[in-house]
Amino acid sequence: MKIYISCDMEGTAGVCAWQQCDPSDDSEYPIYRRYMTREVRAAIEGARAGGVRDVLVNDSHWDMRNLLWDELPGDDRLRVISGTRKPWSMGQGLDGGFAAAFFTGYHARAGEIATLSHTFSPETLYDVRVNGTQCGEGLLMAALAGSYGVPLVLVTGDRQTVDEVVAAMPWCVGVAVKDAVGFSAVNSLTPLAAQDAIRSAAREAVARIPQAQPFIFAAPFELSIETVHVEQADFIELMPGFTRAGGRTVRFTAQTYPEMMRAFVAATRIGSAANTG
Q1: What is the mean pLDDT of the chain?
Q2: Is 118 among the catalytic positions?
Q3: pLDDT at 277 over 70
Q4: Lower CB density within 10 Å: C or N end of the chain?
Q5: What is the reported pTM?
Q6: How many angstroms separate the Cα of 13 from the Cα of each of 24, 70, 118, 138, 246?
């Protein structure tokens, strides 16, 4: 049995500030990348206890080279995708060969009253919807996995993103490692307690795979993006297939979900280019 893990960092236990998950920070980031890595390791250990042999981990945070390799299991049944920019970003490596997916360290979507809430690029994207449904990174990537027939069975992170995902996918095991006190404050489990909870939940999640269902949206897929600034929508509108729907809103329609996600990743990157002026 083979599982896929996409790991982010803002939803890691204890994280409450950008400095803690910013690779350019020399003070706190080295500490919290270790906590991120150990949560991933706990998910792998729980999956292995449940009977999983092969694991592919996609480092999905910031520059996507955060995981401490020597903190991960050292066997040839584990592979790690590291570095940026990846064509499929947080979903790099996904295909139909996985029994299930895990998302660790995920966080609340842009606009939520939650700690470090954002969707992909906080400087570029204010709101993202698929077929009218407001989406955070959890739903967006779960639907990409679902387009390949792969169900999401474990999500860990802040309570808002866990609640959003589990409401849409009741078969999914959720581990809320912290509650938001504000945008830059949390009430959190300790790292060790979070790792124990994730390890146990991962084993349970593997047991749920036979009953789990791929999460999908119905075709055609209408992507709606509201940017932070008007000039970002100006840039995105130049891409073939995008239409302007308002001062800061653009839309794109696709017949397949992967096609829509390719457009979304490209739009996020070209919109970010407008941030440089």
Answers
A1: 97
A2: yes
A3: no
A4: C
A5: 0.97
A6: 20, 20, 17, 17, 38
